[in-house]
Amino acid sequence: MSQTRELLDTFAVSFRPEVSSERLAAVIDALAACEEAVTTCAAAMVAEEDVRVLQDAIVRDLNCADVVAAGRRLVSRGADAVLLSSMLEACVMACEHSAELCGKHAHHHDHCRMCSQATLRCAEACREVLHRLHG
Description:
By secondary structure, the protein is mainly α. The protein is 80% helix and 0% strand. The chain is elongated and about 50 Å long.
């Protein structure tokens, strides 16, 4: 059992009965991994010789980092379903935008390949929770 799930299981009352603590923990962990990947990728792109070509990808990575960090915090504390749904939809969009450009640079930069993979995994985890919330 992950530490995240163990923490969620300590809540006396399930704050999202339609979504299991296992699935909530998985999305929280995916959001955290995504935040780390996009932040590291943006920093790595700044150091690349072709940084001008990477500028749009850097901005998308930084935007994604901010959005998924906020999303992780909302999921962790059990926001209401409407707010949570909106935030997770924003996370999916931010992840897809980041993955789009980093995916184009993945053949030249390993950090972009890894970032693209992390953002796509995160978007999928968010979609799974959204599906459960919308029943």
